[in-house]
TrEMBL record:
Residues 9-167 form the Trafficking protein particle complex subunit 13 N-terminal domain. GO terms for cellular component: TRAPPIII protein complex. This is Trafficking protein particle complex subunit 13. Residues 171-228 form the Trafficking protein particle complex subunit 13 middle domain. InterPro entries: TRAPPC13, TRAPPC13_M, TRAPPC13_N.
Length: 262
């Protein structure tokens, strides 16, 4: 029995995640002037494009490097991708149609679907940008499909590639309740679950029906008024990588504790 010959596609399909680039870095290897190599190591390091010009011994360079993989994406981020379809052959591809889908743990989202291109000449390429707000945790699969017809033979071809990435929680939130007569003292602990620094602009709390919340993090009184007036301000702080907890306290006023559904 003869084995089947694998299809040789005319088109190539590549995907790159659009994210902020990182600084390139070099590994400086230095020596002493009286060593056998002398200043050879320093001269080679100064010629490395990744090392800074004025500080060649510094590992962080002045150039930027693009990400080699999707990496980890956190819940709430917007996934931006760059799709490139390139004709790597010497033949003409006809009726080129590209479709991009995102498969999440519970849904299948269509990110790109356009009418077919009449033809794609040799060495020509088509580029598209996709965007999707990530709203689910777990494994995601980006499915890219390119269908076309070989102009010379009339054969219809189908090229499909899968790109997988994970979505993780950026924050760990824990709550503590303390009953004080008909009121409730709520303490919220927020922990940074990412490997980088994170800056939170605002933290607000929306109570259930029958309750009103008082922010205890910043309280200011108006001395000119007969009764103290509480001004609720937004909380602004940084959650750093040291895995320490930031605590935010709210005071809930209500007529009955049993009406709280949170």
């Amino acid at each position: 029995m003869e084995g089947s010959v694998p299809q040789q596609h005319l088109l190539g399909l590549k995907v790159m995640r659009l994210t902020k680039p990182m600084l390139s870095y070099a590994v400086p290897v230095l020596g002493e002037p009286w060593d056998m190599l002398g200043t050879t190591l320093e001269e080679n390091l100064s010629q490395d494009i990744r090392s800074p010009r004025d500080l060649p011994a510094c590992s962080t360079g002045e150039t930027l490097r693009l990400p080699m993989s999707f990496g980890l994406i956190f819940l709430g981020e917007t996934f931006n991708g760059f799709i490139s379809v390139h004709n790597d052959s010497q033949d003409v591809a006809k009726d080129v149609a590209v479709k991009v889908e995102l498969l999440t743990p519970s849904h299948r989202h269509l990110l790109l679907s356009e009418p077919p291109l009449p033809q794609l000449d040799p060495s020509a390429c088509e580029e598209r940008i996709i965007s999707h707000e990530v709203k689910e945790l777990g494994e995601h699969s980006l499915i890219c499909t390119a269908s076309y017809m070989v102009f010379a033979t009339g054969e219809e071809m189908l090229l499909r590639k899968f790109f997988k990435f994970g979505v993780a929680k950026p924050l760990d939130v824990k709550t503590k309740f303390m009953n004080i007569e008909e009121d409730i003292l709520l303490e919220v602990q927020i922990q940074n679950a990412t490997p980088t620094h994170m800056f939170l602009d605002t933290v607000t709390f929306d109570p259930s029906a029958g309750f009103r919340a008082q922010d205890l993090n910043t309280i200011r009184t108006n001395k000119s008024a007969k009764k103290p007036t509480i001004q609720l301000n937004n909380v602004c702080f940084a959650v750093r990588r040291c895995q320490c907890l930031e605590k935010i306290t709210f005071f809930l006023h209500g007529t009955s504790v049993n009406t709280c559904t949170n």
